[in-house]
Design a protein that fits this description.
Layout: E1 2-6, H1 11-21, E2 26-30, H2 46-61, E3 65-74, H3 93-107, E4 111-121, E5 127-138, E6 154-156, H4 163-166, H5 168-174, H6 176-188
Parallel strand pairs: 1-2, 1-3
Antiparallel strand pairs: 3-4, 4-5, 5-6
Helix pairs in contact: 5-6
Bound molecules: inosinic acid.
Inosinic acid binds near residues 69, 70, 71, 114 and 150.
Length: about 190
């Protein structure tokens, strides 16, 4: 069985990747489980940060490593919070939702995009990066209880409900993460 080191210290993220990789005959272990240090995310893009994390984990372990970086880009905020999504509003999501909705309202510009970059680093130092995007609009008010992060304020194109209302069954078909992962899976399966 192939083994890939997931460059995360988040047990939830490890589990998510383990579920996605199992059908491909790939076992997932995490940087956290191996006690590897976390690098500084100093990149200026999702792809750059995913690459920093994947290379750091590969070099620390000598094993093939996979990292992701994701976030929400809001048109009315010129693409913010973007790579700073997890820190925007200092973890106070209700406050962050209100800031984003107010900016969209003021600019009358509701478009937004979730982005996910996945980077696979091989022991020889080569990397492959896969980007998935999910386009939509900011909701006029937060709604729904499923998911995490900005799911309550994001309505994907083709739907009239937020990710937090649509739930995993819909989100996992169309999300930025699902789209990036589909590209990685195709590569791992040699398609
Ligand atoms: P990270 O990729 O785990 O660093 O996540 C970045 C941040 O982007 C998360 O903490 C969330 O705030 C936001 N984010 C990324 N993907 C999603 C998503 O699918 N739904 C809601 N928020 C997300």
């Amino acid at each position: 069985m192939k083994r890939i080191l997931i460059a995360t210290h988040n047990p939830g993220k490890l589990k998510e990747f383990a579920v996605l990789l199992a059908p491909l005959g790939v076992e997932a272990i995490s940087a956290g489980q191996l006690g590897l240090p976390e690098p500084e995310e100093t990149g200026a893009s999702f792809a750059a940060n995913a690459r920093i994390k994947a290379l750091h984990a590969m070099r620390a372990s000598g094993q093939m490593a996979l990292a992701d970086d994701s976030g929400l880009c809001v048109a009315a905020l010129n693409g913010a919070p973007g790579i700073l999504s997890s820190r925007y509003g200092a973890g106070d999501y209700p406050a962050a939702f209100q800031r984003i909705i107010a900016a969209a309202q003021a600019a009358n510009e509701w478009r937004a995009r979730f982005v996910c970059a996945l980077c696979l680093a091989h022991p020889d130092g080569t990397t492959a990066t896969y980007i998935g995007q999910s386009d939509g609009v900011i909701a006029p008010a937060p709604s729904g209880g499923a998911g995490f992060g900005y799911d309550p304020i994001f309505i994907p194109f083709g739907h009239d409900k937020t990710y937090a209302e649509l739930g995993a069954a819909v989100k996992d078909q169309i999300s930025h993460r699902a789209r990036a992962f589909a590209q990685l899976a195709a590569r791992l399966q040699g398609k």
